[in-house]
Amino acid sequence: MSDRIALLMSNMTLHDKFKMVEGAAGLENHGVGAAINPCIGLIKVSERLGIPNLCMGDGPSGVSNGLGNVTTFPAPIVVASSWDPDLMYDYAKAIAREHHDKGHNVALTPTINIQRAPLWGRNAESFSEDPFLTAELAVASVKGTQSENILASPKHFAAYNQETNRFGDAPKWSAANVIVSNRTLQEVYFPAFKAVVERARPGSIMTSYNKVNGYHASENKAILGDLFSWGFDDGFTVTDWYFGHRSTLESALAGQTMSMPGGKSDFGFDDFFSEKALSLVLRNGSLPQAVLDDMVRRVITPMFVHGLVDDHDLGDVNVDVRRQEHHDLSVKIVEEGDLDPGTILLKNDDAVLPLSSNVKKIAVVGPGGDYGALVSERYGGFVGSPNLNETLVTPLQGIRHRAGQEVEVVFAQAIPALEAYEPIPDSAFVSAKGSALRTTVFNNSNWSGATLFEDQVRNISQAFALDLNLTAVSPISAVHEGKLTPQDTGYHDFAIYAGGYAKLFIDNEEVVWLRKQGFVNYATGQAHLSASVPVKFRIEYSSAPAITSKGLRIAWSTPRMKTTLLEEALVAVKDADVAVVFVGNILSEGGDGTSLALPTTEDDLVQAIAQVNPNVVVVAQTNNPFLMPWLDQVKTVLIQWYAGEGVGTALARILFGDINPSGKLAMTFPPSDSVGPCSLTKSFPGSEADLISDYADVFYDEDLLVGYKWYDEHSVEPLFPFGHGMSYTTIEIANQQVLGSRSDGTIEISLDLYNTGLREGKEVVQLYVGFPDSAGEPPKLLRGFKKVALEPGQITSVKFQLSTWRDLQYWSESEERWTFAPGNYTLYVGTSSRDISWSSSLYVDSP
């Protein structure tokens, strides 16, 4: 193989080499949303070289970028909730097959960043808050992807854990600067990347948008040096799109290999790896020819290693790649079947689930129960197939099909769908000059200085900014103000839909806050208004964070609208044996949440239903953990996250007990917005980050105490702990013991699992390690897990092996290396980070 690579490079001209490190894709709508881009990134290889182009496609949850006729798989967080690397391998392999058949030979997957903050917009696209669990799943994902003769591109290296200011605000685009200790990088944010390099040999790794300790990731010698020190020698680094590349010489010398999507962007950045730019630094001697040659070698090598060069069956973008086995896999990921589930049973009082044969009427409540089901991410990792409805099985459809003729199943929408609030009528607005709103648009991002225009507008729509023929580097801001006169008395729900930043104030009180959004998203809020009583109405908007649609619209749901829907729902559930109520939120790439609270209408709905029906099952379709003010009022809570096109089939089987859920939380559920490691603004989303400014430092002050480690350290009870998840049976852990240490540094732990229940089930037994105080580690760290299936009455033995060289090491800041602390180590075994059934102290004097 090395001979083939050397021969190829010897036949390359300098022009050929330049083309290997510079993207050649002109992307419609910047590759966002429904725009169809066959290759989201393209390396156009000179034909005479006889090797294929590199055609890249998003993303981690399935074929994206507007391409149709693909499977809508569950989000990665669903698979991660199974705690099953084998399932992750199958998931990644199926997605890779669809990428391949659509003509992609590089899949921009998986996202293996740590779920540091519960409000991060990409939690559903990633795996876990824990680096050990993330690493095990990441290795399986990369191996599964590359089994299909395409390259994986694990991302985003490094310390990429928020959307807010990930590349900053126009026109300067000053990306967030993550201030984090090297020890925290080594122990929390690097392990998954290190694991895939050492154990899965990825063909590519994508660098992140943000700065790390003052330097952009794409030109950060410190972190890229770590990447190469792990043995990443036969793959290439690729910048994240548009904003990830900020220099020519600095990034090339640091080890950046490829710039995407290539060309001089309309966001104001130069074409840093263009032939002209690279030729200049080569001619003046600042970039050695050997560096360019090594960049090219890194691109070519994985094409040979992973079979791209000899793959003559690459597909076509127009092919329908949906397969029955992929739809079936989508179902099995969420439930059980021959594989493991991702649905998590958080609570199940009085054994409401599985539904008994006495249940004769089921009420399905909420938009998420039917075609309002939230089954995929909106942007980035996966947008969902444009023809999703051809394959989607909604929860209502799945439940009705499974229930058959013997059980009545009724549906009530109950509340307006998240994105279906009604426009506020023009007649409700009054400004100082009449029946309209006064709109002032500024020729900058922060509501100051020169104005583009002032006008009276009858209402607010997205069109107002688009009419100005703005470019990507021409941010505007706007203020809409006047008076709003409602016709009803009671709580009014407001929704802002926008790309950018927006706040709604009513009588000078903040009601809705849309945190910076790169793409179009929504935010909701609530205010109590009185009929015929005017209130001050003001919206502040800035387009600076947006890279797509600039503008906004406002909508509402009045007490009259809500009352009608809710009354219908209360009638439907009053005589039902069980009420299945759906809640959810929409977050994905491009924006972070502002609160863990669900939309107020959803919390109100759950509480209203619980007042008239004692058997409420709440099903959550969310990106992230959320608050549950109604938790004590309901019997059962199921988490499905974004569960893909087979959501209805899987849910029905779980409700009726055909399947026994065994998913486990891969991230902690906080008890409130103010509790947890990222509850301070300077830690998330960072100092000045929520202002329209050119400054955004993000302080990782929690250091090693990410997720459950923070709760352990501070003795705080989470709402639900990391690793928690129930089933329909009971499995006990017994006979735990340390079998001893071997000469090779291995410590063996043995235990028995005993299914004491009446049906088959699975348990994830978890091994944690507490270090000696001198190591300065959190109270305990996950160091092993195993998922075991048992029949009723079955006893199974499980063994863990700890390596003192791998599992008992910590990073020494003073020595700048991994080291070992002699002393007493505590071993913990349990079924969550808080449900610990056994612990034992063990003195270890050397690795």
Automatic annotation (TrEMBL):
It catalyses: Hydrolysis of terminal, non-reducing beta-D-glucosyl residues with release of beta-D-glucose. InterPro entries: Cellulose_deg_GH3 (IPR050288), Fn3-like (IPR026891), GH (IPR017853), Glyco_hydro_3_C (IPR002772), Glyco_hydro_3_C_sf (IPR036881), Glyco_hydro_3_N (IPR001764), Glyco_hydro_3_N_sf (IPR036962), Ig-like_fold (IPR013783). One of its GO terms (molecular function) is beta-glucosidase activity. GO terms for biological process: glucan catabolic process. Residues 432-570 form the PA14 domain. Its EC number is 3.2.1.21. Keywords: Glycosidase, Hydrolase. It comes from the Eukaryota. It holds the Pfam family Fn3-like. The keyword Hydrolase applies. Belongs to the glycosyl hydrolase 3 family. This is beta-glucosidase. It comes from Kwoniella shandongensis.
